[in-house]
């Protein structure tokens, strides 16, 4: 389990089989600086390795999920700084977690904040949520996958609109475009995300990680390769105790008891 005491910019806790990471730089609207990025990746990696954790929720505050990468920190950097320190390169490790992840978003999810939400498997958004990629207004472009994941999620027409104008998109538009999984009243965002996370964590963790890998392959590759990958992942579920138990429980008309093996 992640050692929450060592973190300064996030809080980490577990509720049953759900790990919760709360971004905690309220004065900067949870702007993502190097320390926060390092702490989120460290905590998420520890939760991912913990067999007792079956889903991870990442959330912010009522006012902001995250208002982007920390502009004050970035403004001091040169090309050679960002290139040599692989600035924000570790963020990609979040995409490689095998535990399902849910972003619970209220308020601003802008720039790197929108990209962090899109790195998660599901986005549950409150009705106050606003998404956008405003990097163009700072003379830069998205750098944590935004130009790729947003385009795959909402299509070229809307991605170009959002990335070239830098405008903020309200949650009803984000839901219509398929960027968010569910929209709820803002005061219910975290509780809904925790419920969904608990539901996922109650399933077979092995099956969940294979299902996640299969869906991500659809996102990242062509149909033929994706279907081939899904087939071999499906076959591999027959090597698990959870497949034996899940199907036996159905046949015997009882609830399955998954051991996540
Ligand atoms: N970075 C640093 N500080 C921020 C940020 C930020 N992204 N966003 C807000 N803050 C700070 C403000 O400076 C302010 O601090 P202070 O009180 O010390 O001046 C405090 O948070 C509150 O902000 P505001 O007073 O501006 O609050 P408003 O309600 O008036 O406005 C907004 C809220 C609209 C969210 C506004 O703060 C804003 O526009 N923020 C910047 C949004 C933005 O441009 N985000 C994109 C950043 S670039 C990016 O994310 C690139 C990611 C790629 C990284 C590449 C890695 C390879």
From TrEMBL:
<dbReference type="InterPro" id="IPR001753">
    <property type="entry name" value="Enoyl-CoA_hydra/iso"/>
</dbReference>
<dbReference type="Pfam" id="PF00378">
    <property type="entry name" value="ECH_1"/>
</dbReference>
<dbReference type="InterPro" id="IPR014748">
    <property type="entry name" value="Enoyl-CoA_hydra_C"/>
</dbReference>
<dbReference type="InterPro" id="IPR029045">
    <property type="entry name" value="ClpP/crotonase-like_dom_sf"/>
</dbReference>
<dbReference type="InterPro" id="IPR018376">
    <property type="entry name" value="Enoyl-CoA_hyd/isom_CS"/>
</dbReference>
<comment type="similarity">
    <text>Belongs to the enoyl-CoA hydratase/isomerase family.</text>
</comment>
<comment type="function">
    <text>Could possibly oxidize fatty acids using specific components.</text>
</comment>
<keyword id="KW-0276">Fatty acid metabolism</keyword>
<keyword id="KW-0443">Lipid metabolism</keyword>
<keyword id="KW-0456">Lyase</keyword>
<protein>
    <submittedName>
        <fullName>Enoyl-CoA hydratase</fullName>
        <ecNumber>4.2.1.17</ecNumber>
    </submittedName>
</protein>
<dbReference type="GO" id="GO:0004300">
    <property type="term" value="F:enoyl-CoA hydratase activity"/>
</dbReference>
């Amino acid at each position: 389990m992640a050692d929450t005491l060592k973190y300064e910019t996030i809080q980490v806790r577990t509720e049953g089989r759900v790990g919760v990471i709360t971004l905690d730089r309220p004065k900067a609207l949870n702007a993502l600086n190097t320390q926060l990025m390092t702490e989120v990746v460290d905590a998420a990696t520890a939760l991912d390795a913990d067999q007792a954790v079956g889903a991870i929720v990442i959330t912010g505050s009522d006012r902001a999920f995250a208002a982007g990468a920390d502009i004050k920190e970035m403004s001091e950097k040169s090309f050679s700084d960002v290139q040599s320190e692989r600035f924000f390169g570790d963020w990609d490790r979040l995409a490689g977690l095998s535990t399902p992840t849910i972003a619970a978003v209220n308020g601003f999810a802008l720039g790197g904040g929108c990209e962090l939400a899109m790195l998660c498997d599901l986005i549950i958004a409150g009705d106050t949520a606003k998404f956008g990629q405003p990097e163009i207004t700072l003379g830069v472009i998205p750098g944590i996958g935004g130009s790729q994941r947003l385009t795959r999620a909402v299509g070229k027409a809307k991605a170009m609109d959002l990335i070239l104008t830098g405008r903020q998109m309200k949650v009803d538009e984000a839901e219509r475009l398929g960027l968010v999984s569910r929209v709820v009243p803002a005061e219910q965002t975290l509780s809904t995300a925790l419920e969904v996370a608990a539901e996922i964590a109650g399933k077979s963790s092995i099956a969940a990680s294979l299902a996640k890998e299969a869906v991500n392959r659809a996102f990242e590759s062509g149909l033929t390769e994706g279907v081939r990958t899904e087939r071999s992942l499906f076959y591999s579920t027959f090597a698990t105790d959870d497949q034996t138990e899940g199907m036996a429980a159905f046949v015997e008309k009882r609830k399955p008891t998954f051991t996540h093996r």
